[in-house]
Amino acid sequence: MKYHLITLGCQMNISDSERVKTVVEGMGFKWTDNEEEASLLGIIACSVRQKSIDKVYARIRKWNKRKDRESIITFISGCVLPADKKKFLKTFDLIFPMNELLLFPKMIREYGIVTPASLQKSNKGELVEPANEVNDFKLTSIIEKKAKLNSDDIHLAINAKDVDINEFWDIVPDYNSDFEAFIPIQNGCDKFCTYCAVPYTRGREVSRPSGEIIDELKTLVDKGYKSITLLGQNVNSYGLDKKGEEISFAELLHEIGKYGDETGKDFWLYFTSPHPRDMGNDVIDAIASYKCIAKQIHLPLQSGDDEILEKMNRKHKLEDYRQIVNYIREKLPQASLFTDIIVGFTGETEEQFENSRRAIEEFKFNMAYVAIYSPRPGAVSARWDDDIPMRVKKERLHKLGDELKIHSYKYNQQFKDKDVRVLVTGVEKRSGYLSAYTETKIPVRIYSKDKSMIGQFVSIKTTAVTDFSFAGEIIDNE
Questions:
Q1: Could you report the per-residue pLDDT of 104-126, keeping only the tens digit for each?
Q2: N or C: which end of the chain has fewer CB within 10 A?
Q3: How many Å apart are CA 137 and CA 115, to the nearest integer?
Q4: Which residue, 181, 299, 186, 287, is CA-closest to 241?
């Protein structure tokens, strides 16, 4: 029996999907790239934009048509808003939050599905279903904590509150790569930005025990992983929910940095995504103190206008952001700076948009992920008129993109004909090229067909630069 999983949205969802794969494969299912071959089909959903939810509806309609001729089971988890959950209850067979993942085998069993791992051979060599076993997947003591589910209340498992997110983090992920990895350190959000659905899909902030984070990182580094990213909805608010019980985010970076220095292990540590409200100088000082902490910072701005920032409930002003960037430039002059910006937020005037363009001009971002605003049911701003025409939103999107290109290209030009260290990540679509990125996360195209270098650090000489990337030739295969 085979399964297929579609993951939408952010890196946190990608990380979550790695733990989903562990549980599903523990039930005996085998991965297939071809969803038409799968009898178990799942989606890790994203509710940040309506476009992602539209993809979910399109996919489940397609899958449900197969049910007329095949026996398949569908499920959905991830970031799901209450309004969408009610609709998904009617279209998906199973729906559950991520902290319920360890119960998924039991849900499948109670739904009446015999999993490969639940079958055993009879005396005649035939596969039979054991009478009293859920399956051979080893559930933790969490099963004993739960009341027995029946077929009528399986869907209601999404409302269960007695399963701790820490038990989800205890699942060993089936990493998608053998040289890049994500480590979740925090889940949920306490910021309640008016445009954002995360607090309503993932709940309040919960920090993972620092000992577990460091242990997972050491295991990955010992296995030869080269790029590791710490994940959280507001990663630099780590520990604030456990003051006096847990270390701060800056202290966590120091612990990892000291481990890198003491062992001499060669890896790049990244983190995403921080919030300006919690971005203290101590975090920037920690980045500057250790070789293994990559000199790349993703700091979401969202708008360059103070009135819009207040309307978004960001709780910081442009001047606060400016002070952070100035300190970054002082302590980390070599660092790249990425950001997020929303255009067309409710009521955004031309002058307010122009302030966002000026912010890109001032801060000279290397990359900005610019999104067209769309209301999300459940978020506060969904109650307000979405009063900026789509035509205007698209014009503003392109204007910010044009502004960004100017500064990104100027930054990249300084690396022309220079030696640069990169991590090779894969094969380019164009034959004869490998893909890579620098420590500062600038994409690189390498003139080479040697796939043995994938997952390794190499040195290149840049031969060309574009708005957002380099091209180069290998001069040293480390």
A1: 998 888 766 555 555 444 444 44
A2: C
A3: 10
A4: 186
